[in-house]
Amino acid sequence: xxxxxxxxxxxxxxxxxxxxxxxGLALLAEHVSTLRDDLIHLxxxxxxxxxxxxxxxxxxxxxxxLILWDVVRMGWTDIDAVRGQLRTFYSHLAxxxxxxxxEGRPADxxxxxxxxxxxxxxxxxxxxxxxxxxxxxxxEADRExxxxxxxxxxxxxxxxxxxxxxSDLKLSSWPSMVIDLALALHRFGCTSKEGLEIIAKEWEGVxxxxxxxxxxxxxxxxSILEKLGTAGLYSNNLTQVDVRxxxxxxxxxxxxxxxxxIKVTKTDLLAExxxxxxxxxx
Length: 282
What we know:
Elements: H1 14-44, H2 48-74, H3 79-88, H4 92-101, H5 109-118, E1 123-126, E2 133-136, H6 138-147, E3 150-154, E4 157-161, H7 177-188, H8 193-203, H9 214-230, H10 240-248, H11 266-279
Antiparallel strand pairs: 1-2, 3-4
Helix pairs in contact: 1-2, 1-7, 2-3, 2-4, 2-7, 2-8, 7-10, 8-9
């Protein structure tokens, strides 16, 4: 048995790939839905720390659904690009970036790429002047700090950190939007083979570049949802919130977006801070 081998989908005859993806999407939808129910129970019990952990897990599983839908939206023409997209399925960083990207309302694909790139840096500067302190990658930090007690050092300071800090967070922070978006698309019928065929057909031959505006994606989303309804794929418990999420938050296909980490050194950031300080005296 070889785990973490989704790339093996490419060894399956093309005519059978949507069946396989639909099977995985259905399993993910059931898992995300169950985790969401557990999350709600924890919220109702006032268990913020546990709720944050479950929300993080459910968000990553929901992001995996979006990754698979993007494989379908890409088609099979560029196998190298599809292979790269399939590999993002296993990246905590990529899944975390997916979860954040769907929360925004980007105007064009360039804006999506820019935000994704900002979330890939291993270290970055921030603070009142945007250069005051060095932080580690925010996606990885948010994930790990919700799960683990750890001892961290930062520019001369050292301290223990603990997920106990999550006990003070507002319970209304969850579920994350990516969870509800994935389940909304599931209720529209996007996890069925028939739904995937509709998605693939609508995106077939569509080219995107950095200047591609959101209205183009929105129009395709609307057409997909209408055709899903015509095909009788809607769930009986579809809601108006589902409609809004599917129309407004199912963002650009991200198959061409780079999710690999960008290595940034402390030396790089200290030099950037020095340049900023020097510019203040000019």
